[in-house]
Fold each of these.
Amino acid sequence: MPSSDPVGDMIAMIKNGNSRKMRRIEVRHSVLKEGVAAALKREGYIEDFKVIQDEKRKFIKTMHVYLKYDIDNRQVITDIKRISKPGCRVFRPVSEFGRVLDGLGIQVLSTSKGILSDREARRQKVGGEMICKVW
């Protein structure tokens, strides 16, 4: 059954996998999900992600997201929350971003320059749609 919010499903899978201390989760691939995973990797919240082509079905791809834990096996991601939803999109200019936990967390945005964290968007001075908060 198709989902009305695939990015929200990915965020829920990361949150659930993280709370169960799983090393890897699998999600269906999309360019937006890949961009979110790349932003999380650049900011150090996940270890890695890989896009895998299905051998039997050419047009089906899955993405493996490798979750990150510290030396004491504690989660790096304390929580992750969806901000902009299909029924209520949230757009912000760069001047209205705000800070997540006074700078300890990040916001992931969809901008005209791609999927960026709030830190990267501030450097490039672009606003956009707020996808999620991570801390």
Note: The mean pLDDT is 94.
Amino acid sequence: MSRRHRGFYFLSIALVVAAGLASRYWLGLPWFWAKYLADALWALLVFFAFAWLCPAASTAKIAILTLVFSCAIEFSQLYHAPWLDAIRQTWPGRLVLGDTFAWADMLAYLAGAVFGAGLEQFIRLFARGKS
């Protein structure tokens, strides 16, 4: 496994943030698509962030970390400490931590993690073919 290029993942994070915000708030998508596309993009963002933080880790490890982290954040929404709910009431807090637990969100996180892993493998195959 070769190390990842951190610049690529940093740029990917920025693009996914923009796409996630656009899908949720600015594109006027129907509720279902706005909600679950944004959730999948959130997981893709987490995938790219872990890939940036752990450039030598395998794609499978990054995907598993993404799912564990995303599901932990989702389950944390069942805990309602006043200080945590105060954070969730802010726009950045809601973007990062969410505010309402939903099992369906985990399917969107799975889709984002699988897409990230597949995209990474596709890029590696494409890069290998060019060399």
Note: The mean pLDDT is 93.
